[in-house]
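STRUCTURE REQUEST FORM
Protein name: Putative iron-containing alcohol dehydrogenase
Source organism: Reinekea blandensis MED297
Requested output: structure tokens
Priority: standard
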Amino acid sequence: MNRFTFQNTTRIHFGEGQIAAITKDIPADARVLVTYGGGSIKKNGVYDQVADALKDHTWAEFSGIEPNPKYDTLMKAVTMIQEEGYDYLLAVGGGSVVDGTKFIAAAAEFAGDPWDICQFGATIERALPLGCVLTLPATGSESNTGGVITRGTDKLPFGSELVRPIFAVLDPAVTLTLPERQVANGVIDAFVHIMEQYMTYPVNAKVQDRFAEGLLMTLMEEGPKALNDPKDLDVRANIMWAATLALNGLIGAGVPQDWATHMIGHELTALHGIDHARTLSIVFPAVLKFQRDSKKDKLLQFGERAFGITEGDDNTRIDQTIARIVDFFHEMGVPAALSEADLTADAIDPLVDNLKAHKMGKLGEHRAIGFDESRAILELAV
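Status: completed
Returned output:
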């Protein structure tokens, strides 16, 4: 196991009715700006619960944060904050709303051009405090320090301890009305988050490996159940907690991490508007095929522990393991190849050009995936 420092300060309120807990978590004298997306929270009862919890606070709302939150939209919220004096943010929604609110929190206190935070990795020295009410388990953004923002054809990450949510409400009951597509996307997003930290090479981190394998197996077991029985609250609870633990820093502590799938996937979203999770399901199998030698030990380990694959030579077992992962993606109704998203090999050159523009030339756990390697991965993904 490698050396690491781990700290996660987000307070988690988990379970039905926990939205009420925000009353005490947000200072009574705070001027709160509630951020959310397209308005589904007004249909599923979440907005009313938030409004009730904030009835003794001074608050206003900012709506319209998109999936893959857009810089121009978020800057409208920054202007609102600066003109009206809000000093606390409450994100109510899925990972895109939380990511966008993290950026708003930093941009509202940033002295220069806020896009520098994403484009040049400018240091975030101050940020408004924020909490969140999660409505879609997927990204883990509710208890980590990162986010991803889109501007034009640029989809870029940023991060700082200063934008980690102070608290997060996780009520699985609010996920029961989610559309099937969003449920599937959330499961796949969490699954690949875990894989980016697990499917690398061994460093004798047995605790992290077992945590990761348990989360992966939970998602593979519960994900299809959520599609087949949308009203099973216990299933939703397990998925919600697994998605948070997938990216709160715990399983990634002391182990090598990959993230090539995410960086390549971001370009698919930026250029073709494909759902983030579906870009991951398209790219990840190709990454495994391309890196089958460098990921050999972990592929064999996962195949044995998750699927009971022990027969045959190493190559056969690796092929079977990748095939089982693809089967899971298909069971969740997401694509596992570019062709399944109506894209051909003609899409590859512009994707590689975007990777070059964003200086994504040293990807993967060994930083050995350059632009030629990314092209080869995309060719395997066709």
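Reviewer notes: The domain at 11-174 is CATH 3.40.50.1970 (Rossmann fold). Strands lie at 11-14, 31-35, 58-62, 88-93, 130-134, 146-151, 154-159, 167-170.
Form closed.
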